[in-house]
Description:
alpha/beta, Elongation Factor Tu (Ef-tu), domain 3, Rossmann fold, Ubiquitin-like (UB roll), 3 domains, seven-stranded antiparallel beta sheet, five-stranded parallel beta sheet, 17 strands
Amino acid sequence: MSGGxxxxxxxxxxxxxxxxxxxxxxxxxxxxxxxxxxxxxxVIVTMDDDGHRRRNPYSLMSAPHDTSGYDISVLRVAESRGxxxxxxxxxREGDALTISHPVNLFHADKxxxxxxxxxxxxxITPFLAMMAEFDxxxxxxxxxxxxxxxxxxxxxxxxxxxxxxxxxxLYFSAENDVLPVASLLHNQPLGTHAYVxxxxxxxxxxxxxxxxxxxxKSNVHSERFLAPISGKAFDAELxxxxxxxxxxxxxxxxxxxxxxxxxxxxxxxxxACGQCETAVVACNGVLAHHDVYLSEEEKASGRKVMICVxxxxxxxxxxxx
Length: 321
């Protein structure tokens, strides 16, 4: 089963909230409430871009208890594969979309006595719902939010106004501010949990620093959705389906499989959840893994591939699909 039953929605409002960032309010087409979700959840948004179907994951940033609509924020990526460009340039208020039911791979640990949130750029989005949930439950938290500049940062002013400067700390790289990761992670009280969402380099640094500071792995949480990498086009043989699909240079294996009418499983489409893990039956070439789910040993074995983000360079790739 793929990403679950689709929900028909329409865009009720579009706002520009920062340089290259827009917020979209989605409401059910039939006017009914949307499903309840927990902070940290995301949905897959399906877009029909002049006959080309695009599916991208976006974190839900609205308050979890508000089911009248969902809010997402989208950064216009300079080298967009099409999703962010479509949403920024073609989508209008009143337009129809479909979304998946919410899935949460980045939930807040209810056992935490304190929560430290480290956001970079558009990585602020899942934390907006988390903060609303923490504040509603009177749970201790701090947000440390790194941005390129005041113009490029979204929501920072309203977050300071709502939660106070003692809980919301801002860092602007254009003003030579640096997120003090090491000092933030040192000497935290027992039962503290840390969460990071932002650019890969920032996320990697936070995770590495947490390990060096002796944080238990169970107390450190991260989320990142990876876009499929580009490369040379190749053919993938789907053994159970009895067909060969051509994977384009700017297309993922998952997208090519879906275009051929095969219903492949997925949840995040960003190399994080493991749902699209596929057995490799034959591989005469090199797999270019680009996920954060498989271990280094599993990647080296060549027996598994995450078809949402990985590629292949060689003469033959046969998959158990």
